[in-house]
Design goal:
The complex is a heterotrimer of chains A (287), B (256) and C (386). Chain A is mainly alpha-helical. Chain A is built from eleven helices and four strands, in the order ααααβββααααβααα. Chain A has a single domain, classed as ABC transporter involved in vitamin B12 uptake, BtuC. Classes of the chains: A mainly alpha (287), B alpha/beta (256), C mainly alpha (386). At the B-C interface, helix 2, helix 3, helix 4, helix 5 and helix 6 of B face helix 7, helix 8, helix 9 and helix 17 of C.
C-alpha cells in the first residue's frame, strides 16, 4: 500500500516532467533534451533562496520564475535559430544545452551534492499503512496541476491555439496564430511544470547536484514516449505507470538492482508492440 | 489481354471517413503514354501513392503484367517494375547527379555486389562499379545531363532537377514509369524538350508511361489515352481529345 | 582490369592520404618508442587516441552517413569491454601470448557487440529519429545496469583485467591499436565508397525517395548499425586491455555524448574530420585532466556544450547560411581562382544558380513568356498555386 502511494507520487513527478517534454514535442516537434536540467536549475534556485534565509514561499516563487525565464531563453537562443533545420541538428543542440546547464551549475555550485530541507512533513497512517505526507502532498498538488493544465488546453484561447499549432503549423499560421509566441508559451509552461517537479523532487530526496535533472529527465521522457509523445493524457499515464513500476521493482530484492533496466526495457517493449506509444496518434507522412 | 501492363480494379482509399480516391479502373497497354489529369486535390498523386505502395488501398487492387501488387512495400513494388518521380522534387540533394542515378541502378541484377565484396575490395567490386558508371552515363545522356554529372543535384536548375528525377527512376529499369507533373515549373522550351525525351524513353525502352500533368498542351500533345479525376472519382476516360472536351470535364475545370 | 582498379577513386591521393599519414605517424612513434624517447604516459594517451578514433569513425557511419542519432555507442563499447576482455581473460589461461589473446577477443568482443547492435537495431530502426535516440540511450543504460549487477564481472567493483592488461614488458598496445585503426578505416572507407555507401547516403538524404528507388532501407539501416556496433565493441576490448578495472561508470550516457561531440566537431559525414576531432578531444581531455583540479573538470563539459551548440547552429541555422557561405573555404578558393571570371560566366555556372534568389520566379516569368506568332493562351484557368 505504501509502495503504491510512493509510486503514485513519484509517478506524479515523472508525469509533470513528461508533460513538459510532450507539449514541447507536440508543438515544436523537437525533443528538448535540456528539459531535465531545467529541474536542476529550479532545485538550485530553491537551494540558494533557502540558504540566503528566504522563506519557502519565496523559494517556490523564485524557482518557478527562474525556470520559466531559463526555458524561454534557451528556446530563443538555441532552438529558434534552428527552426526548419533537420531534427538531428536540433536534437544535438538540445543535448549541448543540457551539457551547458550542467557544466555551468557545476562550475558555480561545485559537483558535490548539497542538502536542501524544504519541510519535514513526517508520516501519517492511512488504511493501516504508513505513508509520508510529502507523497500525499505531491500526489494531490500534482493532480490539481494536471487537471488545471488539461482545462487550460481545452478551454482557453491560447490552449486551443496550442492544439492547432501541434496539428498543423502552417495552417495555424494562416489562421492568424502567432506560432512563435505559442512555442514560447509552451516552453514557459513546460518549464513551470519542471519547477513544480523540482519542488516535489526535493521533498522526496532533499539534495541537489548538477546532474540531478538528467536521470529523472530521461525517465520522464521515457514515460512520455510510453504514453505516446505529443499526447497530454499519455504523458500522465506514462509517468504514473513508470513511477509505480519503479517503486514496485525497488521493493522486490531480486529486481531492485535492475530497476533502470526494467524501466528502459519496458520502453523498448512498448515501442516494439506499439511504436506510437499507448495513447499516441498515428501520423501520415506526406509524399 | 497480354499486352496490358497495368490494370487497376476499383482502386480506392479513404482517410478516416474521407474517400480520397474511389473506384479507379485503369487499363494501360504496353508502350502507351497515359495521362492522369484533374483539378488540384482530385486525388491524382494519391493514385500514384497507391500504385507505389506509399499508401495501401482500402478497396480494390492492381496488377502489373498480371501480378497482383497490392499489399507490397514501396521497395518491393519498385523491384517488381514500377518507378516514379515526385511532384515536389525529391532528389538526393547532397549527392552528385551521377550518384543519384547510380542509386537508381542499385537493385539491378547485373550490378549485384555483396556488401562484403565491397568491404574487402574484391575484384568484383571494381567490375561492378565500372559497369554501373557506364550505364549511369548512358542514362544521363538520354535526358541530356551527362555534362552535369559531377554537379551536386541541389545545384541544378529546376527543369534539370525534374529531368534528373526521370533519369533516376529510369535507372531502376521499370516496366511502368509514373511521372508526377514532370513539366511543372518548366518554360515552353523545356516542356517541348521534355516531350521529346518522354517519347524517346517510350520508344527506346518500350516503356509504358503514366503521367500526371496540369499543362493540357503537354497532355494532349503526348498522351494516347487520358483519365480525368475529380474529387477522387473518374470523370471521363478515353483519347486525349475526347476526354478533355467532355462537357463534364470542362465543367469541373472552369465551373458552370 | 588492373588499370580500371588503379583508376578508381580508391587510389586517388586525396582518398588515401589518411592511411599514409596514420601509417607514417605510427612508424615515427615506433621509432621514438624503441629509442626510449616516448614516455609511458604518452604511449597511454596514444592508446586512448586510437580507440577514440575507432569510436568516432564508427559513430560517424551512423550519424553522419545514415543520418540516425545513436546515443548508445558507449553501450556497445561496454559490451566489448566487459565480454571481450572476459573472454580474453579465460583465454589467457590457455594461450601464452597476450597479443593473440587480444586479437581473438577483439573479434569476439566485436561480434558480441554486433549481435547486441542487431538486437537493438531490429526494433529501434523501425522508429524515427528522436525515438531511436532515446531507445539507444535506454539500451546503453540497460547494459550498464546489467553489467554492474552480474556476479561474473566484479559487480560494483568493476571487472579486474590485470591478467591481460598490457604492461611495459609487452608489445606496446598503441601499435596494435593503430594498426586496427588502419583496418577499420579501410573497411569504413570501402563501405562508404561503394554502391552500398551510396544507398546509405541516399537514405539519409531522402528516405522516401530511397524507398521509391527500391533501396532496402531496413537492411541498410541495420547493416550500418551492426557494423558500427562491431567497431565500438573492438574499441571496448582495447579499453579493457588498457585499463583495469573496467568500470561500468565509464560507459555512461556522457561518454556516448563525448563520442558524438567528436563526430559533430569533425563534421558529420567526414571520416578525416572524425579522426582529427577524436585526436583533438582526447588530447584536450588529457591536458585538462592533468592540469586542472577536480572542480574545474566541468570546464571540459562546458567546452563540449559550446562545441555542440556552436557548430550545429552555425552549420544548420537557415538564417546563418549567407554568413557561412562567405566564410566557407570552398567559396574562398573559388573566389581566388575565379578572379577573371565575368559575371555572366558565374550566372551560367549551375553551381551558382541556387544563389540567385529569383530563380523560381524567373521560371514562372519564362513560362508565360509571349513569343511572336505563338501567343500563350492560358488553357488551365483552374490551376492553383502549386
Amino acid at each position: 500500500m505504501s509502495i503504491l502511494f510512493d509510486g503514485l507520487s513519484l509517478g506524479a513527478i515523472y508525469a509533470l516532467i513528461a508533460l513538459g517534454y510532450t507539449m514541447v514535442y507536440g508543438i515544436a516537434k523537437m525533443l528538448n533534451f535540456a528539459h531535465g536540467d531545467i529541474i536542476m536549475v529550479g532545485a538550485y534556485a530553491v537551494f540558494v533562496t533557502l540558504m540566503g534565509g528566504g522563506h519557502i514561499a519565496l523559494a517556490i516563487g523564485l524557482s518557478v520564475i527562474i525556470c520559466v525565464v531559463m526555458g524561454v531563453v534557451v528556446e530563443k537562443f538555441a532552438y529558434k535559430p534552428l527552426r526548419g533545420a533537420s531534427p538531428l541538428a536540433v536534437l544535438i543542440t538540445a543535448i549541448g544545452v543540457s551539457y551547458l546547464l550542467q557544466s555551468i551549475s557545476q562550475l558555480v555550485f561545485g559537483a558535490e551534492p548539497k542538502t536542501v530541507t524544504i519541510a519535514s512533513l513526517g508520516t501519517v497512517s492511512l488504511f493501516g499503512a504508513t505513508i509520508s505526507v510529502s507523497s500525499i502532498v505531491t500526489l494531490v498538488i500534482g493532480a490539481v496541476i494536471m487537471a488545471g493544465l488539461t482545462l487550460f488546453v481545452k478551454k482557453t484561447r491560447t490552449g486551443r491555439a496550442m492544439v492547432a499549432v501541434s496539428e498543423d503549423k502552417g495552417a495555424a499560421m494562416l489562421m492568424g496564430i502567432n506560432v512563435n509566441r505559442i512555442i514560447t508559451i509552451t516552453f514557459a509552461i513546460g518549464s513551470a511544470l519542471a519547477a513544480a517537479a523540482s519542488l516535489f523532487y526535493l521533498m522526496q530526496i532533499p539534495s541537489v547536484e548538477p546532474t540531478l535533472g538528467s536521470m529523472p529527465g530521461i525517465k520522464a521522457f521515457t514515460a512520455a514516449v510510453i504514453g505516446g509523445i505529443g499526447s497530454i493524457p499519455g504523458a500522465m499515464l506514462g509517468g504514473v505507470m513508470l513511477g509505480v513500476i519503479e517503486k514496485i521493482c525497488l521493493s522486490v530484492p531480486v529486481l531492485a538492482p535492475y530497476t533502470t533496466a526494467v524501466e528502459f526495457g519496458l520502453l523498448i517493449v512498448i515501442l516494439l508492440v506499439r511504436p506510437i506509444g499507448l495513447l499516441g496518434k498515428k501520423r501520415r507522412e506526406k509524399v | 489481354m497480354s499486352d496490358i501492363v497495368l490494370r487497376t480494379e476499383d482502386l480506392g482509399i479513404s482517410f478516416g471517413g474521407l474517400k480520397a480516391v474511389q473506384g479507379v479502373n485503369l487499363e494501360i497497354k504496353k508502350k502507351q503514354l497515359y495521362g492522369l489529369v484533374g483539378p488540384n486535390g482530385a486525388g491524382k498523386t494519391t493514385v500514384f501513392n497507391l500504385l507505389t505502395g506509399v499508401y495501401q488501398p482500402t478497396t480494390g487492387t492492381f496488377y502489373l503484367n498480371g501480378e497482383e501488387l497490392k499489399g507490397k512495400t514501396q521497395e518491393q513494388i519498385n523491384r517488381k517494375g514500377i518507378a516514379r518521380t515526385f511532384q515536389n522534387i525529391r532528389l538526393f540533394n547532397n549527392m552528385s547527379v551521377i550518384r543519384n542515378v547510380l542509386v537508381g541502378l542499385h537493385n539491378q541484377k547485373e550490378f549485384k555486389c555483396n556488401p562484403f565484396v565491397s568491404l574487402f575490395r574484391l575484384p568484383g567490386h571494381y567490375k561492378t562499379e565500372a559497369k554501373m558508371r557506364e550505364r549511369a552515363k548512358e542514362i544521363l545522356r538520354i535526358v541530356d545531363l551527362e555534362e552535369e554529372r559531377n554537379n551536386l543535384a541541389c545545384n541544378l536548375p529546376y527543369g534539370k532537377q525534374r529531368k534528373l528525377e526521370i533519369a533516376r527512376a529510369l535507372a531502376t529499369n521499370p516496366t511502368l514509369l509514373l511521372l508526377d507533373e514532370p513539366a511543372a515549373g518548366m518554360n515552353p522550351h523545356e516542356t517541348e524538350d521534355l516531350m521529346r525525351i518522354v517519347r524517346k524513353i517510350r520508344d527506346d525502352f518500350d516503356m509504358t508511361i503514366l503521367l500526371i500533368e496540369h499543362d493540357m498542351k503537354f497532355v494532349s500533345g503526348l498522351c494516347d489515352e487520358v483519365t480525368v479525376l475529380n474529387f477522387g472519382t473518374v470523370l471521363a476516360q478515353g483519347t486525349a481529345n475526347e476526354a478533355l472536351n467532355d462537357p463534364e470535364v470542362i465543367k469541373a475545370y472552369i465551373g458552370e | 582490369m588492373i588499370k580500371s582498379i588503379l583508376k578508381s577513386d580508391d587510389f586517388k591521393i586525396k582518398n588515401c592520404i589518411n592511411y599514409m599519414v596514420i601509417a607514417a605517424a605510427l612508424v615515427v612513434l615506433v621509432v621514438l618508442y624503441n629509442a626510449g624517447e616516448l614516455k609511458a604516459s604518452y604511449a597511454n594517451l596514444l592508446v586512448q587516441i586510437g580507440y577514440s578514433i575507432i569510436l568516432a569513425v564508427s559513430l560517424n557511419l551512423v550519424v553522419g552517413f545514415l543520418g540516425e542519432l545513436s546515443l548508445g555507442h558507449a553501450g556497445f563499447m561496454c559490451v566489448g569491454a566487459y565480454l571481450g576482455t572476459f573472454i580474453s581473460m579465460q583465454l589467457s589461461d590457455v594461450i601464452e601470448s597476450k597479443v593473440i589473446c587480444l586479437l581473438i577477443s577483439m573479434l569476439c568482443g566485436g561480434l558480441l557487440a554486433a549481435i547486441f547492435g542487431f538486437l537493438v537495431g531490429l526494433p529501434a530502426l523501425r522508429l524515427k529519429g528522436d525515438y531511436l535516440a532515446i531507445v539507444t540511450l535506454a539500451f546503453g543504460e540497460i547494459v550498464r545496469t546489467v553489467f554492474k549487477n552480474l556476479p561474473w564481472f566484479g559487480k560494483a567493483m568493476g571487472l579486474t583485467t590485470g591478467a591481460v592488461k598490457f604492461t611495459k614488458k609487452d608489445t606496446p598496445l598503441f601499435i596494435i591499436v593503430f594498426i586496427t585503426v588502419l583496418v577499420v578505416l579501410f573497411f569504413v572507407q570501402n563501405l562508404v565508397r561503394s554502391k552500398h555507401g551510396r544507398a546509405i547516403t541516399a537514405i539519409r538524404d531522402n528516405e522516401i525517395a530511397a524507398k521509391a528507388m527500391g533501396i532496402n532501407v531496413t537492411f541498410y539501416k541495420l547493416f550500418v548499425f551492426v557494423i558500427a556496433a562491431f567497431f565500438a565493441g573492438v574499441a571496448g576490448v582495447f579499453y579493457g586491455h588498457y585499463t583495469t578495472p573496467v568500470m561500468y561508470t565509464f560507459f555512461s550516457y556522457n561518454y556516448s555524448i563525448e563520442i558524438l561531440v567528436m563526430v559533430v566537431l569533425g563534421g558529420m559525414g567526414s571520416i578525416n574530420g572524425s579522426i582529427i576531432a577524436a585526436t583533438l578531444i582526447t588530447v584536450i581531455n588529457y591536458i585538462l585532466q592533468k592540469e586542472l583540479p577536480g572542480e574545474l573538470a566541468a570546464l571540459k563539459f562546458l567546452i563540449y556544450a559550446l562545441i555542440l551548440i556552436g557548430i550545429v547552429i552555425f552549420n544548420n541555422a537557415p538564417k546563418l547560411s549567407p554568413i557561412k557561405e562567405r566564410l566557407s573555404l570552398k567559396v574562398l578558393i573559388a573566389k581566388l581562382t575565379s578572379k577573371n571570371r565575368k559575371p555572366e560566366d558565374i550566372l551560367n555556372d549551375p553551381a551558382h544558380w541556387d544563389k540567385i534568389p529569383t530563380k523560381i520566379a524567373m521560371d514562372e516569368v519564362l513560362s508565360t513568356d509571349l513569343q511572336p506568332g505563338n501567343e500563350y493562351v492560358p488553357d488551365k484557368p483552374a490551376k492553383g498555386g502549386k
